Please model this.
Amino acid sequence: MSDAKGGGKAKRRKSAAKAAASVPPPTLAKTDAPATKKATAAKAVKTAVVAAPVAKPAARRTARPATKPAVAKAEPSASHPHASEAPAAQPSLAKGLNASGLGAAGLSPAQREMLEQMSANLARAALTAQGAIAEAALRQADRPAALSPDPFHVGPALTDVISRLAAQPDRLMRSQADLFSRYMALWQSAARRVAGGEIQEVVKPAKGDKRFTDPDWSNNPMFDVMKQSYLLTSNWLNDLVSDVEDVDPLSKRRVEFFMKMLTDAFSPSNFLISNPAALREATETHGESLVRGMENFAADLARGGGQLSISQTDSTPFKVGENIATAPGKVVFQNELIQLLQFTPTTEQVHQIPLLIFPPWINKFYILDLRPENSMIRWLTAQGFTVFVTSWVNPDQRLTSKTFEDYMVRGVYAASEAVMKQCGVDRVNTVGYCIGGTLLSCTLAYMAAKGDKRFASATFFAAQQDFSEAGDLLLFTDDAWIDDVEKQMDAGGGILPGKSMADTFNALRGNDLIWSFFVNNYLLGKEPKPFDLLYWNSDQTRMPKTLHLYYLREFYRDNKLAKGELVLGGVKLDLGKVKIPVFVQSSKEDHIAPLRSVFKGAQLFGGPTEFMMAGSGHIAGVINHPDANKYQHWTNPALPGSVDDWLAGATEHPGSWWPHWAAWLAEKSGPMVPARDPTKGPLKATEDAPGSFVKVRS
Model:
């Protein structure tokens, strides 16, 4: 990242930290009138803010000029020449030690200076955090109370589980005895280690758990015991809930999810005093890392409007259309819901039947075109396909009443008609990604009922038709949760903020998408690194009320499409009537569209269907350029009755699945014809790709 970009980042952090720290101590009005909400909230933080030394926190900056410390009389040491200015009201730690008779005899000038720097930085970090929290409290005081005292709606389910456990005291006692024996084994192992014996771990982190990768978690006996003690207890709690019998499966699953969130939150890696990497960083920087961390904390609170919005990436290096989403092409059609992009061919000849991709509207399409080296769009044009992509609008209050049927008619139908006109064909191959695939499935069933044969084939990326095994997202789609979403939409003028959807998805992978950044940004005081995928993930879109509630209720809650009960445009949809060739891609570790859910959907189609499984998850399983030589994929031409039977007969292949799919698609794309220039078709090109819809930020 250039110095200019780094400087811009530093200025914003400095501004946020300064704003947070400069919040004046709240003062209660001298009146007999009842206190306002804001005064009440301010009173809760008054003591901490008033007691803190009145000083501005150290500004974030790329280079730190050498300045003479205000407190220490000795010159800065050679190893740490940039000592920060200490708050004027902060007492000198070295003077305190001298007064007790320990200073002159026990500390060198360099050690005294180090302690004073640490003391000053700790004070600054505390002051920055206090100011940020005070500012957040004042902002929240003007807002309505939370919609629900139990936002995860876990209370009734937790009561059921606890009641069942209480009804089985013998089982609970056995479980407690097992935990006690494991702790005894841990203490015996620790004692042998202290005596110089062989190190034997009683419990190890699960595969893929990155919280305890720092060597000190194993090399330091204290942190090793702390780590294993946490793992023993958290595993015990999660297993205790998982093993409960005679409880409603969904209630049990809800408690399991909540317990996992709770135990993840209390990991010792999430606290400064018990994180060896954070303690080491604080020591080596004399507390400067804590100042930076609290400045990051203040900036994230300010960016979230008083609610913590943890930064996952440095977004400053990225600009849509300049260094991401750069595949050349044109916007050739537009209505209130979509812009249709046609991408410039890179071969002299192309297949006759074009390819039309419908990405999800809950994200932006450029996941298919992040960088040239991993762009699916560029790769497809290089294989001789004419590629069109639907870029969905980022809706505002004007579109709150748009329905799922509107998205079918003004999205799928309108785009396909434009593609056929532009290419002079009567057939189109289609792709539906995630929720875009769900919409495409419904459209296929509708077209089958109407005798419309414009689609030659359909491919689905991580898309669901049967939601009976839709993973942990089912926990967010019961009536109580949907009612809360509706209230949130009503409060926002009929639109669900993009951040709300992002928070839900992040909660599904809390350690990776929440706590890892919490530790990096606040405890270690580091800037999040620029990462195009996480930038795309943070470029959220809004959801219009009518469409989103329909999707949650009809698909996730009631599973009407799979049951054959969904009605669109007066037509009851039956996927069994879809006879065109279908290719279904799933991912082994997908937590949004789980493997088993996608497989059950594949079985609903009435024509030839090929099911394929890729390695990795919801994004990396799909976006896996062949040149990367990453992951693997499994194929099986049969489609047996269960996913386990399919896996038993599947063949593993190294690398990307794209070439396998391209060969399947080429067979259904007709003969080769001269390449099509987006500027020379019957539709007028109105602007360059990636278009303007994708650039609208939430």
Observations:
- The longest helix spans residues 109-141.
